Amino acid sequence: MEGTSTSGREHGQRHWLAGTPFDRVLLALAVTASLAGWFAVQASLGHGVTMARIYHGEMLLAEYPLHGNGSPIHIHAAGDLGESHIIIDDTGARFASSACGGQQCVRAGTRDEAGKVLACVPNRILVSVASVGYDAGFDAVAE
Fold first, then answer.
1. pLDDT tens, 81-140?
2. What is the largest CA-CA distance in the chain?
3. Mapped to the 3 state alphabet, what secondary structure does the chain carry?
4. pTM of the model
5. Which whole number is the average pLDDT over 70-86?
6. Do 115 and 129 meet the contact criterion of CB atoms below 8 Å apart?
7. Residue spans per domain, the chain
8. Is the pLDDT of residue 48 over 80?
9. What's the pLDDT tens digit per position in 2-42?
10. The domain 49-132: what is its CATH number?
11. Any residues with CB less than 8 A from the CB of 130 and at least 6 apart, and which?
C-alpha cells in the first residue's frame, strides 16, 4: 500500500509541475519580458562619455574623458597629506603614487567603468568614474 501512495504522490507532483500550455506560454512571456528589461537597462547605462572626476574632499579638482586620444594624462592632486599622482589613460584611471602611508590606493588598480571609484582616504583624494551626457531616467541602479 505504501508503494501506491508514493507513486500517486509522485504522479500528482509531476502533473502539478507540468502545467498547462497556457502556463508555459505565460512563463515564456515573463522570462522574455524580464530579459528584455534587463538588456534595456544595461543598454541605457552605456550611453554618454565616460569621465574621470578627481575630488579633494567635496571639491571637484578636475574632470577628464577616460578614453582619450591615447596619450596618458598625469594629474598631481594636492591632498591633506601631500600630493597624489593620478594617471588617466586608455586602460582607465589609477593612482600612480600618493602621500599616504599604506598605499592601498596605488594597489587598488585601475577603474574604467562608470560607477567605480578609487580613493586615497588619508589624503582625501577621490577618483570617480562616471558616464555623463545622458539621462537614463533612473535615480540609481544596483547590481
1. 999 999 998 889 999 999 999 999 999 999 988 889 999 999 999 999 988 765 555 555
2. 83
3. CHHHHHHHHHHHHHHHHHCCHHHHHHHHHHHHHHHHHHHHHHHHHCCCEEEEEEEECCEEEEEEECCCCCCCEEEEEECCCCEEEEEEECCEEEEEECCCCCCHHHHCCCECCCCCEEEECCCCEEEEEEEECCCCCCCCCCC
4. 0.61
5. 92
6. yes
7. 2-45, 49-132
8. no
9. 445 555 555 555 555 677 888 888 889 999 999 998 887 77
10. 2.60.320.10
11. 50, 51, 53, 114, 115
pLDDT at 23: 84
What residue type is 45 in one-letter code? L
Query: How many other CB atoms sit within 10 Å of the CB of residue 92?
Result: 20
Return phi, psi of residue 118, to 5°. Answer: -125, 145
Letter for the amino acid at 132?
A: V
